[in-house]
Amino acid sequence: MSTLPNNEESASFSSDDPNDKVKVVEMVGNELFLLPSKQPTETVAVHTEEPRRTSGASGLLRPSTAEHLIQGIATGARRAEEPTVGLLALPAGDDRDPLSLLYRGRVNGIAGESGSGKSWTAMAVALDEIESGNSVLYVDYEDSAEGIYTRALAAGADPDTLADDLIYFSPEGKLDEEAWTVLEHVLDQVQPSLVVIDSTGEALSTHGANPNADEEVAEWFRTVPRRIARHRPPVTEEQERKWAKVRDVRPHWHPPRPEGPAVLVLDHVTKSSSEGGGSLSPIGSQRKRAAIDGTLFIQRMKEPFSRGAEGYAELVVSKDRHGHFRLGEKAAVLRVAPDHETPATGTLEPLSLTLEEVPSTEVQKAARAASKLDAEVAKLNDMDPPPRSKRDVMDRTGWGDKKALDVLRAWRERQGLDHE
After folding, report:
1. CA-to-CA dists, residue 396 to 29, 377, 381, 392, angstroms
2. CATH 3.40.50.300 describes domain 85-272+279-359
3. Where is this region: Disordered (predicted)?
4. Residue ranges in 161-312 assigned as alpha helix (H)
5. Cβ neighbours of residue 258 under 8 Å, at least 6 residues apart?
6. In this structure, what are the phi and psi dihedrals at residue 10, rounded to the nearest 5 degrees?
7. How many angstroms separate the CA atoms of 180 and 31, rounded?
8. Closest Cα to residue 354, out of 330, 336, 338?
9. Sign of dihedral through CA atoms 272, 274, 279, 281?
10. pLDDT tens track for 361-379
11. Helix 401-415 vs helix 390-397: angle between axes, to the nearest 10 degrees?
12. SS3 of the chain: helix, strand, coil, percent, to 5
């Protein structure tokens, strides 16, 4: 265990092993609980040609920086932002390129009624990032370390690496500059692809902010979620050496922009919103929605799930700053299945969390048509005696010429009979 440094040593941190990478478990009062982990990343501060402003007062972008930015956009060197965190599984028969839910370096949100499964959605995204080789920071104002790790393990996370992969941080008070020194050190060392803040309401309360007061809400979003999203990891010496080699060949080349994490804030909605009516916005100040510069989804429970029952929830698009999702469309479905024993092997399978992309209109139409045909073929299966001809089907069902022929052909194919 290590304690927070005093004011004179605010930039230094200690643990039992100087080679340990610091990972926050929980901050209680003036004590910081640490977990030892992998070797720290050797870093060096370098200029990465990010757009810069001349001063906070003027907000004026330097002409040289503006020119570099414009040329990058015009030539395609700077690609349009795309959501890359929270990859969605595609339904069977859907051959589109899969989408993701959240933007890195942006503040994203999921809002829903209590019990709608928001935390499970956040966990599904977190575990997908971990499976992809990334780390996740969970800033928790509502649960406990035991609760969060229990959920992760129940969903199949590896207990041997979970402490390295999922870093838990439970602020006991307002994130002052001393706490920020610690948090930014963790962001530099861990370099998470995702930071979950659970939840907005409790975080605002901890910071002494009124959730209905526009200015107080805007201030919290600016100084906490957005500050985390805009935090860029330091560049390693190895990266700088590689970039130097490129500059030797291409003197005007600029290195890629370092990516901040995707920040996911969880929030609540009014009951009317959760049931499909009312506004597609979180409860409280409208500045909450305005502060989201990535994606915002409203999560609605459609079939409640529990320890013993499967269920699912839908994510409806409330906002996408960059236009990959349409307002009001159903973007994803969270499916939750409890742990169960496989009959053939007796193996206990973990709880299943699946984020699925909603099928395209064409796939949905095809699925509905196939389901309807199945039901109509079943009617022919029930006929005694079996149908003999199209006219026979028409007389016994009242169907028209084309429908009777189509269903009869499908029935004969499934019976292994030749067409007449």
Report:
1. 79, 14, 13, 6
2. yes
3. 1-21, 39-60, 378-397
4. 162-165, 177-190, 200-206, 214-223, 225-230, 237-249, 271-274, 287-291
5. 48, 232, 233, 235
6. -65, -15
7. 14
8. 336
9. positive
10. 554 555 567 778 888 889 9
11. 110
12. 35, 20, 45
Tell me the C-alpha to C-alpha distance, in Å, between residue 19 and each of 23, 92, 124, 192, 235: 13, 47, 32, 19, 19
Most confident of the ranges 115-119, 193-197, 337-341, 351-355: 193-197
Peptide bond just before 116 cis, omega within 30 deg = no
Rounded Cα gap, residues 331 and 315, in angstroms? 6
Does 321 score more than 70 pLDDT? yes
State how far the Cα of 49 lies from the Cα of 71, in Å rounded to an integer.
Answer: 13
β-sheet bridge partners, residue 32: 2, 27
137: tokens are 């920071």
Mutual angle of helices 401-415 and 361-381, in 10-degree steps: 80
pLDDT digit string (tens) for 70-86? 887 887 767 778 899 99
Residue span(s) of the chain under CATH 3.40.50.300 come to 85-272+279-359
pTM: 0.70
Distance CA 299, CA 309 (A): 19
Angle at 354 between CA 126 and CA 80, to 5 degrees: 60
3-state secondary structure of 69: helix
DSSP calls for 374-413 = HHHHHHHHT-SSPP-SHHHHHHHH---HHHHHHHHHHHHH
3-state secondary structure of 49: coil
